[in-house]
Amino acid sequence: MTPAPLSPFSRQSFKRITTGAATAAALALLLMSCASDTGSSTADSAGAASFGDASIQLSWIKNAEFMGEFVADDAGYFTAVGFDSVDLIPGPASAEAGVISGNVDMGVGNAISTGTAIAQEGAPLKIIGATYQKNPFTILSLKGVGNIATLDDLAGKTIGVQASNQSLWDAFLKINNIDPSTITVVPVEYDPTPLFNGEVDGWFAYLTNESIDAELAGLDPVNLPLADNGLPFVAETLTVSDDAIKNDREKLKALLVAEIKGWTDAINDPTAAATLTVNTYGKDLGLKMEKETRQAEIQSTDLIVSADTKANGLFTISDALQKQSIATLKAAGIDIDAGSLFDMTLLDEVYQENPDLIAYSK
What residue ranges carry the coiled-coil annotation (predicted)? Predict the structure, then answer.
């Protein structure tokens, strides 16, 4: 089927799982009533771990955002580490709710959404790794419309901001000491046509979505990434339950090994990963090869890899980046400490046991 034109903001936004009393109440009920699936591994006759089936909740449709998972599945990396199968469940969906309910073993989310669930609802969750070292939020403008390349360029401009992203926008202004009265904010939905038509000067957007649309339309996009301007935090995070960390460590570590191998292949050949996405995993979605390839390239060069991942391996979150993420959450009104949000011990063990996985560049 062809998906409705939903935006990544609708499922990656700051207020995704905490907006509305009904959502908070539902999450609270899950916390009180849902038992965790311990899913202990067994051993086969050869002594190798056998984990049976597993599942990963994706936060969005099956596009290039999850190309590493697709490669891991297609190349047999999940089965090689002991899984009979791994179900990659498309979104949009809340990683936090899926993990808490026990419906999935792991969910793909971000530090904002998971931090909100832990701080405001007491969710028994941790982030154990991050695909994106750099979050992809950006203030998108066009060279001929707005041309917002620096913070100073925001003065006097009109910016389209979605309701779900208002809190993150407010945090962006606050942390950069920008007077809100110097900017006109227009409530918008997710279709960036008003920017493309010149009705507004800028748009709260994604580097891997609307910015690519503008580029492919020949509109000369100009980006002001939030991660480079006061709001760094990790995204595409791998969220699991506290219970699984305690009781299913080997199962989670096996998932991480397969994920690392899949993403290693994907970032070394983003064109092949995009092709696999379009022709196989997202074949019913009407995806465009040109856009998926550009997303794959941007992810591989700008978002997933860093000096820290080169030194320590994919998915690792350095102490410095953890502190930056916590500072961003604090600016957005979320009070949480690094120890309550992150647990890097599983990745530490994975790389200690598999040091060859650190060198992902080929």
Answer: none
Name the token pair of 358: 């650190």
Measured distance CA(280)–CA(223) in Å, rounded: 31
Residue with token string 């998108």:
140
Residues 321-337 have pLDDT tens digits of 999 999 999 998 999 99
Token pair 């650190």: residue: 358
Instruction: Give me the residues of the chain with pLDDT under 50, please.
Output: 1-47
d(CA 157, CA 142): 13
Q: How far apart are CA 26 and CA 233, in angstroms?
A: 27
Of 228, 255, 284, the domain-final residue: 228
Determine how many CB atoms are found less than 10 A away from the CB of residue 86.
23
Q: What residues are paired with 141 via a beta bridge?
A: 222
Residue 296 near residue 274, CB atoms below 8 Å: yes
Same domain for 325 and 223, yes or no, is no
Domain final residue, candidates 228, 247, 277: 228
Query: Whole-model pTM?
Result: 0.86
Q: What is the pLDDT of residues 162-176, one digit of tens each?
A: 998 898 999 999 999
Contact 54, 82 (CB under 8 A): no
Collapsed DSSP state (helix, strand, coil) of residue 344 = coil
188 and 145 share one domain:
yes
Q: What is the residue range of 36's domain?
A: 9-135+233-358
